[in-house]
Amino acid sequence: FELAEIAARAGDTEAAAAALEALAEARGGDAYAKTASLFSAYTELDTAEPASLLARLDPLIAEDASFTALAMELKAQVLIRTGDQAGALALLDQLLARDGLTRDVAGRVEALRDSLSDGG
Fold first, then answer.
1. Sign of torsion, CA 98 100 105 106?
2. Position 1 pLDDT exceeds 80
3. Among 71, 89, 111, 119, which residue has the least CB neighbours within 10 Å?
4. First vs last C-alpha separation in the chain
5. Which of 30-34, 56-60, 94-98 has the lowest mean pLDDT?
6. How far does Cα 48 stand from its chain's mean position?
7. Helices in 1-120 by DSSP H: which ranges?
8. What pLDDT sits at residue 119?
9. Rounded Cα distance, 7 and 21, in Å
10. Where are the domains positioned within the chain?
């Protein structure tokens, strides 16, 4: 994580994401790997190929565990970027229906959903 932080602070998001992906691969699916994978997707949200981002986010969503809500939130943003507004809205609705959603996440998701519903 330290290498990724140094790269991010220097403005090198590509190097930060690469460091996070290397960590995710090295850790083999433990909590650190999942955290690194989520952060790498977040770091490259506006720049990486959508398929690459979805390949990192979908496993976190499928396991329905700690990072699922955040991964769903990021996936909705990827879908918006690809022009799949209907898919993003459906995913955001699914996310809002989840039990135990934190107030912060719910607020962000509702704001994003409202902006899409308003034609944003």
1. positive
2. no
3. 119
4. 35
5. 30-34
6. 12
7. 2-9, 13-27, 31-43, 50-62, 68-81, 85-96, 103-117
8. 64
9. 13
10. 1-48, 50-120
